[in-house]
Design goal:
The structure is a homodimer of 132-residue chains.
Chain A (H helix, E strand, L loop, with lengths): L16 H12 L5 H12 L3 H13 L3 E6 L2 E6 L3 H17 L3 H10 L5 H15 L1
Antiparallel strand pairs in A: 1-2
The first copy, chain A, binds a DNA duplex (30 and 30 nucleotides) through helix 1 and helix 3.
DNA sequence: CTCCATCGTTTACACTCGTAATCGACTACG
DNA sequence: CGTAGTCGATTACGAGTGTAAACGATGGAG
């Protein structure tokens, strides 16, 4: 009997910080083998190849990356766009810390002097464009 | 013998999301008893008083809140300012996702239409002030 | 055909987080 | 004086994370 399997609405599972490092490698260039990912990230983070493999598996489980067999090994490709990831992460922060309003975040960054003159110029340009 | 205890440079321990909810209550008004904190947060989050007490203990351990005995019970007060917390959290995000530059974050928010006209006006005002 | 390097998979293990139940001390009520 | 409520402290426990070793298949070098 085929009973209704209530497919979970597939809300995108959270990607952890270590996992993100792996995603960054794949966002930069893909598909990659586990080896290649390791060449990108093992050095900076001091990881072993095994660690990368674990992270890749978890990302596959989370449906964040896709695998494609290539002979003996696998090629890994991101299934979610970096911009999407960045989007939900920034939104989370803005919600959590600034009641969902972006302006206070901006105000905070400004006050904390986290804005370089370049940033300011860039933002001004963006604003001009937004208003047009 | 008194040997050198290498006091760890007391890098501020991370505050988790649940813990933040408790901090928010204390930032709004303090000092508070565990009871009072619970009155603020247990409803919205569906927590038990015990949960709040656990979170408070952890925050005390993390040196994020201070305790002051008040007869039988304790009064809890934040030891870190909300603006500091907000600061490090936003910085983390900007570092993690935008290479430390604030402008790309702004660009992203703009593109994602996460900016209301009000936000834009507010930011313009801020910019004007920054330039003066 | 054998053996080693290499894959992906499975298992491991300590630590944090979310969410509490339980415990021992104390106090206020009867 | 006993006892029920209340406090903070201790313990619990499953899920997720960071980090990896161990395992089993397999393909290529002799």
């Amino acid at each position: 009997m085929e009973w209704d399997v209530a497919e979970k609405p597939d809300q995108p599972e959270r990607i952890s910080e270590a996992e993100q490092a792996v995603m960054e490698a794949l966002w930069q260039r893909s598909p990659l083998t586990a080896q290649e990912v390791c060449e990108e990230v093992c050095g900076p983070r001091g990881w072993s190849l095994n660690t990368v493999k674990t992270l890749l598996s978890r990302l596959v489980a989370k449906q964040a990356v896709a695998t494609e067999p290539d002979g003996k090994r696998f090629l890994y490709t991101p299934r979610i766009a970096r911009s999407d990831y960045v989007g939900t992460e920034s939104r989370r922060l803005v919600d959590r810390l600034f009641g969902g309003r972006a302006a206070p975040l901006f105000a905070h960054l400004a006050q904390a002097e986290a804005l370089t003159p370049d940033d300011i110029a860039e933002i001004e340009a963006l604003l001009k464009e937004l208003k047009s």
